[in-house]
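Hi everyone, sorry if this is the wrong subforum. Our group has a chain we'd like a structural model of before ordering constructs, and none of us has done structure prediction before. Sequence below.
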Amino acid sequence: MASIKNFSRTRLAMAGVAFVAVAALAGCANQSASGNVYTFGQAQRAQVTEMGTVLNVRSVTIQPDSSSGIGAVGGAAIGGLAGSTVGGGTGRAIASVIGGLAGGLAGNAVENRTQRRPGFEITVRLDSGEARVITQEADIAVQNGQRVQIVTGSGTTRVVPVR
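Answer:
Right subforum, don't worry. Here is the predicted structure as tokens:
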């Protein structure tokens, strides 16, 4: 009977590891706020462009609007498995629940932290005299006084240096 119980725990642990691996891969499909990244839906579409000069660049953090829940579920699974190895009977059940809750909270925090990206809030004075503020990932270097092109289309606006 003990070997069957250990076999079930091993299978449960392997299932938990497989779930976390799949969840980690699913988490790799992040959205991008880069000025250099276009989705397939944005490619080969006409976009509107305006010219201007950078007035100010401020460092910001870009984070997702909401959590996917993958971190919380994966953390809860690992925490629950870890808790199930503690004690016996009612104590084991309580440890599993506490481990699951703590793991879920930790997994959610890790997911939120890994989804954050450094960004720039860029203020541009357009040649028309209007000012615009665009926030994007900090993967394109821009600086005060630099000539830039504001590209708008398919629901996004990006700042691109004029070369």
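For your construct planning: Strands lie at 48-62, 117-126, 131-137, 147-153, 156-161. The helical segments are 2-27, 70-83, 89-115.
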